[in-house]
Here is the input.
Amino acid sequence: MEPVIEAKHLSKIYGKGATAFLALSDINLKINHGESVAIVGKSGSGKSTLMHCLALLDTPTSGELKIDGEKASKLKSRKLNRLRNRRFGFVFQQFFMNSNETVLENVLLPLKISGTRRKHRKRLALEAIETVELADKARVKSKNLSGGQKQRVCIARAIVNNPKILFADEPTGNLDSATGEKIIKLLFDLNHDKGVTLIIVTHDEDLAALCDRRIRITDGKIVVDESIKHVTRPAARAINSKTKPANTPEAKKAKKNQKKGVRK
Amino acid sequence: MKFTDILKSANVNLFRNKMRSFLTILAIFVGSFAIISVNAIHTGVNDFIDQQVESIGGDNYIEIAPTAAYDQLASMMGTGEITKYNANKSSSDATIISEEDLSKIRKIDGVISMNPYYQASVDYITTSHTDKKYNAVISLMPGGGVKADLSAGNQINSNSSDYEILISEDYAKKLGFDTPSDAVNQTATFGVKQSIKCYTVANPDDCIATLDAKIVGVQAPSILSIGGIRVNQAANDAIYNLASEGIAPDIKNRTPMATGEIDSTKLNEIRADLKKLGFTAITIDDEVGMIRTFFNVILIVFTIFGAIALIAAAIGIINTLLMSVQERTREIGLEKALGLSKGKIFLSFSIEAIMLGFWGSALGTAVAMILGFIANNIFHQSGGFLEKFPTFNLVKFTPESVAALILIVMFIAFIAGTMPARKAAKKDPIEALRYE
Here is the structure.
C-alpha cells in the first residue's frame, strides 16, 4: 500500500546568505496509513517545521513531498486548501479556538470552510463533540471551559471532517498530566478505532513511547527512526504507565488487556 | 465557505468591537448625511425652479440692453477699460436704446417684436369694491409666451391695446373680492402722479390722474414671477405716458432696455446679430440659469465638504480593519490552516468594509430623510416660509440619488478595505499561529 506521506530529500532554509538557517536537512521518510508517529526533539530542532511541511502549511526549500502518491508541489492552492480541509486534522498546543463562540461553533469551523450544508454540518459537529464526551457542553462558550475540555474541543474540531491524518503539535503541552492522559487516550482511540494516521510532535518521551514509531530530530536531521514494539494497546498503556496505584476502572480494564496481550 | 457564511461572519466580526465599529460608522454617517442633505435640497429647489419656469414659459421672451451698459458697470467695478470720448456716442448716450436702434433690431431675422421698456409706476390701486386705496408696485408682464401661474382668470394679452392687469391673491382680498375668481373681469383703478403738473397745483391730490384697467386674472403665489401687480404693454405705456405728461419726448423716451418677442429657434443667430449692433440679450433661461448657478455652487461646496469627510472616514475604515486584522491574526491563521482560501479571507474583510460603508451611508440617508421630512412639515405650517407653496418640498430625496450615494459610499469603503483585506489574505498560517 502506498504511504500516506512520503518525503524525499526535504530541506528547509530560513533566510538568505550569511544569515541563512538550515531548519530541515535532507529528510527522508515514509508514513504509512494507520501509523502513529512521534516526532521528538528539543526546542529548535526542527520538529515543528517538519510537521508544518508534512501538513502542507509550509513549503520546503527543496526536496519532494508526496501525499497519497501525489506531488505536493504540483498541487494548486485550491486543491491544497481542500486537501488540508478534508484530509487533515490539526490539534495545537495553544488550542487556537474562538473563545467567544460556543463549542459547537468552534467544532463546525472546518465544515463551514468546506461549505457543508448547515443541517449536515451541525449533525457531524455534534457527533464529534459526542466522541470527545462533551455533548453537555455543546452550547457553552469556549472561554468557560477548562484546559482539558478546550483540548477535547480541538480534537473534536480536528476529527469533525473525518480526516485521514491527524497532526498534533504538543497536544498535552499545556495540560496537567491527568488531563493529558485523557487527551492521549482520545488520540490513540481514534488511531485504533478509526484508523486515523497520527503524527504527534512532542518533547514528552513518555508520550512518544506510546506511538508505533519514533522519529528523533536534531539540528534538522533525522537521527533516529525506530519502530516501537508494543504488546498492549497504547491507550491502555498510557493509563497504566502514569496512574499509580492503578485502581480506576479503566486501569483495571487495561491491566486485563495487558495480561491477555490484546491488541486490536 | 459559503457566501452566506462569509456574510454572517463578517457581520459578527463587525459587531465584535462595537464601539470601534460605531465610531467608524459615525464618520461615514457624517459625510453621507452632508452629501445627501445638500443633494436633496438642491433637488427640491431645482424641481421648484423647473416647475416655475415651466409655468412661466417665455421661451420667446427676450430682454435687450446696450453692451456698453455692462462695460460701464465693469468700469465702475474697476475692471473695465477707459475708452476715448466720441461725441456721437458719449457715455450718457451709450447706455440708451434709441428709436433708430430699435428699428435696426426689429429688422434682425427672427425678431418678432421689440418695444422700448419704460419703467412705469403708480401711486395706488383701488376698486369699486372697496373705499380704501392701496400702495402698489407694478411691473410689465412681458410677451413672448411668458405665462403667470394663475389661480383664477386668464393670461394677459400682451398685444392687446386694452389695459389688462393681473393681481395677486393678497391684492384680490384687499381690493374687496372674497375669492380670486370674484376679481376676474372687474375693473381696477390706478392713481398716477403727474410730476410736472404737481409743480403747478397747490393740493398734491390734484396732480394725480386715474386710469382704469381690467383685472383679467389672479396670480398664484410664486417665488420666480414678481408678485404684486402685473400689467400688459398697453397699460404700462399708458401709465408711463400719463405720469410723464409734459416732459419732452427726447427725455421721456430715453430707455436703457427693450423687451420683445423672438423666434427662439434662432436665438443664437439673434444674439450674434445683436452683439454686432452693440446689444446684449438676456432670456428667461439666462436669468433662471443665474439662480441655478448659485444653487449649483452651494451644492458643489457642500459636496466637497462631504467628500472630505468621506475621505477621512475611509481612512477610519482602513484603521479599524487593520486593527481587526491584527487582533484576528490567530483566527485567520487557523482558518487558513483549516483550508480557507486567500480569496475568501479577502472577501470576508472586504465585506466587513462594505458593511461599514453601508451602515454609515444608510443611517446618514435615513436620518437625513427623517430630518428633511420634519423640516418640510415645519416650513409648510402656517408661518413657515413655504406656507403658500404646498406643493414645494424644500428637501426632496429621489430613490436614484439615495441608491447612488449608498452604492458609492459602499464602493469607497470597499476600496479602503482592500489594503487591510489583502494584508489578512497574505498572512502566513504558521506565522499567524505562532503569533502570541
